[in-house]
Design goal:
The protein has about 120 residues and is mainly β. About 0% of the residues lie in helices and about 55% in strands. It is built from no helices and eleven strands. Strand 4 and strand 5 form a beta hairpin. The chain starts with a strand and ends with a strand.
């Protein structure tokens, strides 16, 4: 049974930083992609950042230059480093991992609130 456990959300002032973590367990399959999505109240879930097994990364235009997706293979954990946070970054953030061929799993979500 694959499990993704997220942590690291919270309340931060504009301009601050947070690092989200997503620890994966229970799979022996090869990783295809890992990603972070977010969903603000009244909005659809949107892709924030994605990293392929080959190391290619892509970011939403709204977070480019501020957010960084990474992975610690030894810990089987993916991260989203978020800097220069803005109020519009407020949302529930979800990690997503896809294993070959197309097995997709989601974390439980973690709230990020950017407010003074």
């Amino acid at each position: 049974q694959v499990q993704l456990v997220e942590s690291g959300g919270g309340l931060v002032q504009p301009g601050g930083s947070l690092r989200l973590s997503c620890a994966a367990s229970g799979s022996t399959r090869k990783l295809r992609t890992m990603a972070w999505y977010r969903q603000a109240p009244g909005s659809q879930r949107e892709l924030v950042a994605v990293r392929t097994s080959g190391g290619t990364t892509n970011y939403a235009d709204s977070v480019k230059g501020r957010f960084t997706i990474s992975k610690d293979n030894a810990k089987n954990t993916e991260y989203l480093q978020m800097n220069s946070l803005k109020p519009e970054d407020t949302a529930v953030y979800y990690c997503n991992i896809v294993y070959f061929p197309s097995l997709s799993y989601w974390g439980q979500g973690t709230q990020v609130t950017v407010s003074s």
